[in-house]
Automatic annotation (TrEMBL):
Domain of life: Bacteria
Functional description taken from the UniProt entry: Part of the binding-protein-dependent transport system for phosphate; probably responsible for the translocation of the substrate across the membrane.
Family, similarity comment: Belongs to the binding-protein-dependent transport system permease family. CysTW subfamily.
Subcellular compartments: Cell membrane; Membrane
Predominant location category: membrane
Keyword Hydrolase: no
Alphabetized NCBIfam families for the sequence: phosphate_pstC
Domain ABC transmembrane type-1: 91-303
Stored Pfam families: BPD_transp_1
Organism: Exiguobacterium alkaliphilum
Keywords from the named record: Cell membrane, Membrane, Phosphate transport, Transmembrane, Transmembrane helix, Transport
Protein name: Phosphate transport system permease protein
Membrane topology: Multi-pass membrane protein
SUPFAM superfamilies hit by this protein: MetI-like
Amino acid sequence: MNQPNKDFSIREMIESNKQKKYSTTNVFDKVMPFLLFLSAFVSVVTTIGIALTLGFELFKFFERVPVSEFLGSTEWYPLSADPRFGVWALVAGTLKITVIAMIVAVPLGLASAVYLSEYASERARTILKPILEVLAGVPTIVFGFFALSFVTPILQALIPGLKIYNALSPGIVVGIMIIPMIASISEDAMSAVPKKIRDGALGLGATRLEVAVKIVMPAALSGIIASIVLGMSRAIGETMIVTIAGGSQPNFEFNPLNAIQTMTAYIVQIAKGDAGYGTIEYYSIYAVGALLFVFTLVMNLFANWVTRRFREEY
């Protein structure tokens, strides 16, 4: 006699649970778009705020220093009795670090990516890739002291006359620092290439190295180039390594054995209190920061263009 009532009660519970689940899902679907929009909005507003801040302070700097001197001179002596503001001395130091870093990072990063993608077993990949990515989590100040106290003495033993502060040592260490970025992004791009393409090339008699170099790498070219460009942007914006191991001598020359000063290192120097608030030296860090902002923005836009231009559809 109680069986129909029991069945009815069970159906009620099922319907009630369905309604609760639907209600929760419905609320979640309504809230999530707003939260995602808010996240995107905060990112855009932050970028606009940074650009406006740089723009306002940059205007104050160029009220006192001609644009022709800033972009047309190669002498940078902002704290001297006769200040000079030729930013190309800082740009030269930044470019030296970047070029040396990419010479180190690109071959090693791509070689690591090829090994992880094409040669390593699944067990080796699960062990080696996290270890490689741990390198990206080391604080840059540790890399800076590593460059100054370990790499520089080794280079001095190999290169007589090398100064304690130079461009070569921090450039090498910056390259080591960005290897995980290039290797990880490139490996992800290579792993996305379908296995049937590899099998087809192997079936035609290609070796594994030929498959990796002539098939997989061209197919993953957009991701590889994007990783290199992002690594280059990281090298341009590096601060602590070049501040500790590179010195503070802005010179417009390209000898990696001499001391340098990069754009970021100069900003750190002034931010430590070498110039008072409201002085021309203080506003100069915004001019240098704006130029650095433009460099990194151009590099990121180029990376996005390359990704879209060379993306392969499978």
